[in-house]
Design goal:
Elements lengths: L5 H13 L6 E5 L4 H12 L3 E5 L7 H9 L3 E2 L7 H13 L4 E4 L3 H8 L7 E4 L2 H7 L3 H4 L3 E3 L4 H24 L7 E5 L3 H12 L3 E5 L3 H9 L7 H7 L2 E4 L20 E4 L9 H8 L4 E2 L18 H19 L8 E4 L2 H14 L1
Parallel strand pairs: 1-2, 1-4, 2-3, 4-5, 5-6, 6-12, 7-8, 7-9, 9-10, 10-11
Helix pairs in contact: 1-2, 1-13, 2-3, 2-13, 4-5, 8-9, 8-13, 13-14
This protein binds nicotinamide-adenine-dinucleotide.
Nicotinamide-adenine-dinucleotide binds next to α8 and α9.
């Protein structure tokens, strides 16, 4: 895995010479799985001490063991207990790191509850974290760069990688073909665009359902069918939700669904697809994959998004943390997108290895 993340490997080599993190501790709270291990090892090569914990439900014990062997202070292990997770996050913040690599704003929010001297700033991985931290700018007054707002993250991960991994998961979990099947995709944001395109490329006939008329037009001009919602459900062999919204398809829709229809959710929360309600109301006529949990991260051997897409996203992380550590960005960059120069440098490095 470490060798497969080519950008991170090259950045690690460079950071080993420049040592931007020498004498600094980085506190992290992101999924602990093989691809994040590659990021943490890269930061360590740049001289960082690391104090790290995972997220609820997603920590992999092998990743924890590997990091501990390499001298990373890993707080806690795999857990689905919110109280235990909360205590782990507090332990990371109370180690008083100079940089934070945050996911969902969990670490910065705790820092504000118990501020300490010496925090230089850090990064935030997600949109939900950005929304949580934006109203706190006045109190933070530190550089915090938001990775998800980079165009690279939007098209490389959310569009291309989510689209591919959702198709891969559908094929792996159902052993069904997509050829000539009718697939209906709810949502035409970055993720929905990728899902729709990948199913079309796999010879399905794809309809898109969008509540935003502008995005619906975009789907039409991209060559997808855009029928009314109920018609799109009535004709679908496969229904995919990827909106982030609640109750997109529910038990009330069961009478519309074809016999044998397969439903799956790729949005962050399982509440998009009311799995229990649909299965109960349809009386065994339809299948909801993995109880409506994110289909590309569920089931046997879930791999999530491709190594290349994560390598790009984590290269942005490493470069942004370097910029904060070295003072290349200051407090004016509080909860802002990745600086353009970093996007350009990471994009150029990837193209050069392609
Ligand atoms: N599975 C993964 O690996 C993965 C990766 C990244 C993001 N996500 C998740 O995927 C979801 C979508 O992300 P995005 O970046 O595409 O978001 P986005 O906001 O760009 O797009 C969502 C779209 O859904 C539309 N929508 C909302 N409610 C709808 C409804 N009831 N019916 C039809 N359309 C509706 C919106 O108008 C919007 O265009 C989020 O929950 C996100 O967290 C999943």
């Amino acid at each position: 895995m470490l060798g497969s993340c080519r950008l991170l490997a090259a950045i690690g080599e460079e950071l080993e010479r420049s040592r931007p993190f020498a004498g600094l501790t980085i506190g992290t709270g992101i999924h602990l799985e093989p691809k994040t291990v590659a990021l943490l090892v890269t930061l360590q090569r740049g001289g960082a001490e690391l104090v790290s914990t995972g997220n609820l439900n997603s920590t992999q014990q092998e990743a924890v063991d590997y990091l501990r062997e390499r001298g990373v202070q890993v707080v806690g292990g795999p857990t689905s207990d919110p109280a235990e997770h909360d205590a782990n996050l507090w332990q990371v913040v109370r180690a008083r790191p100079q940089l934070l690599l945050d996911n969902g704003g969990d670490l910065f929010v705790r820092y504000l509850e118990e501020p300490y001297p010496g925090l230089r700033g850090g990064t935030e991985e997600t949109t939900s974290g950005r929304m949580r931290l934006e109203p706190l700018r006045d109190r933070l007054q530190l550089p915090v760069l938001v990775i998800n707002d980079s165009p690279i993250k939007q098209f490389a991960e959310n569009e291309h990688a989510v689209g591919q991994s959702v198709l891969e998961s559908f094929l792996r979990l159902t052993n069904r073909s997509t050829n000539g099947k009718r697939a209906t995709v709810f949502g035409y944001g970055a993720c929905g665009r990728g899902v729709a395109a990948n199913f079309r490329n796999a010879y399905a006939i794809v309809s898109v359902v969008e509540t935003d008329p502008v995005k619906r037009l975009q789907a039409l001009l991209d060559g997808f069918l855009v029928p009314e919602r109920d018609e799109a459900l009535r004709t679908a062999d496969v229904v995919l939700t990827v909106t982030g919204a609640r109750g997109v398809v529910t038990g009330a829709d069961a009478p519309l669904l074809k016999d044998g229809a397969v439903l799956a959710n790729a949005g962050h929360f399982p509440f998009e697809l009311d799995a229990e309600g649909i299965e109960a109301a349809a009386g065994g006529r339809v299948t909801v994959l993995e109880g409506g949990h994110m289909v590309n991260l569920a089931g046997p051997r879930p791999l999530g998004n491709s190594i290349e897409s994560m390598d790009l996203g984590f290269a942005l992380q490493a470069r942004c943390l370097e910029a904060v550590a070295t003072g290349a960005v200051g407090p004016e960059a509080c909860v802002v997108p990745v600086p353009r120069a970093i996007d350009e440098a990471v994009a150029a490095a990837f193209v050069a290895t392609a």
